[in-house]
Write a structure and sequence with these properties.
globular; Jelly Rolls; 18% helix; 9 strands; 160 residues; two-stranded antiparallel ribbon; alpha+beta
Length: 160
Amino acid sequence: MRILSYKILIFFIFGFTELGSKDFALIHSKDFSDLLVKIAFDDNTKQKGLMNIKQLKTHNGMLFIYDAPQIVNFWMYNTFIPLDIIFIDDRNIISSIKEGVPMEKNLISSEIKISAVLEIPRGCAKKLKVKKGQIVSWIIKKTAEIKNIRYFHCLNLKEK
């Protein structure tokens, strides 16, 4: 019985740490790579998104991943950062890019069923040459795996 208790305790300490540590993704396309973003997997994280954040200091935005393709709605209430909201379908093709205006209460909706949404600061999509119809992909990383990845903010990239 005592061994079982220790195994359960070890799972709670290390198991949940492992589950919670997969919270970053590196986004790639034909025009850029290694765009570091946080991931929103669960409903709570998806509901909060980038709300109440005034500046991105350690990542370039957020990737919302859905279990099944669906129409999604976003709003910018309590979001201080102007955003490019990029809707991605189940084939990893960008279906639309919309502008998120800080503190706006109107809904921003996908036009078709999507599997992911990428939120990055406004203007980043243009600088990174992100366009409708483009394919994007991502690799999920644990926090420990990104420590050696050079963080860059997409607004600080030099024009090509």
